[in-house]
Amino acid sequence: MSATPSYTELTRDISRNLTALRTHNSEVMQGFNAMAKAAMAPGALDEKTKELIAMAIGVANRCDGCLGFHAKALVRLGATPEEFREMLGVAVYMGGGPSLMYAANALAAYEEFSNATGAA
């Protein structure tokens, strides 16, 4: 089994790797970005709540990139460690054992970005 990845490096690498898609699939990428912007816009739910939901889905779907991008956003939005851990409990409840394994990695991503900003 490999060590927990650096989510800072992972998100940077994914962003860099998306360059080709932005160039060669620009309409798809523009559509995806517009959907993301609309979905995350504050409404009945605030942006932080929506990011907590997105992180829970990332855990349940075992998406490493999702863990990095949403952990970074949650740190930026001021999610507390208590809020983060409570969300992980719901994700594990909904996703079972595989989500428990990813919850541990999601917490590592949150802590990595928190430590980088001094928010922890």
TrEMBL record:
Signal peptide (from-to): none
Alphabetized Pfam families for the sequence: CMD (PF02627)
Gene3D superfamilies in UniProt: AhpD-like
All residue ranges annotated as the Carboxymuconolactone decarboxylase-like domain in the record: 27-108
Keyword Transferase included in the entry's annotation: no
Keyword Membrane belongs to the record: no
SUPFAM superfamilies for the chain: AhpD-like
Keywords associated with the record: Oxidoreductase, Peroxidase
InterPro entries given in the database record: AhpD-like (IPR029032), AhpD_core (IPR004675), CMD-like (IPR003779)
Lineage top rank: taxon: Bacteria
TM region(s), chain numbering: none
GO molecular function terms attached to this record: peroxiredoxin activity
UniProt cross-references to PANTHER family, sorted A to Z: ALKYL HYDROPEROXIDE REDUCTASE AHPD, BLR3452 PROTEIN
Xref: NCBIfam families: ahpD_dom (TIGR00778)
Name of protein: Alkylhydroperoxidase
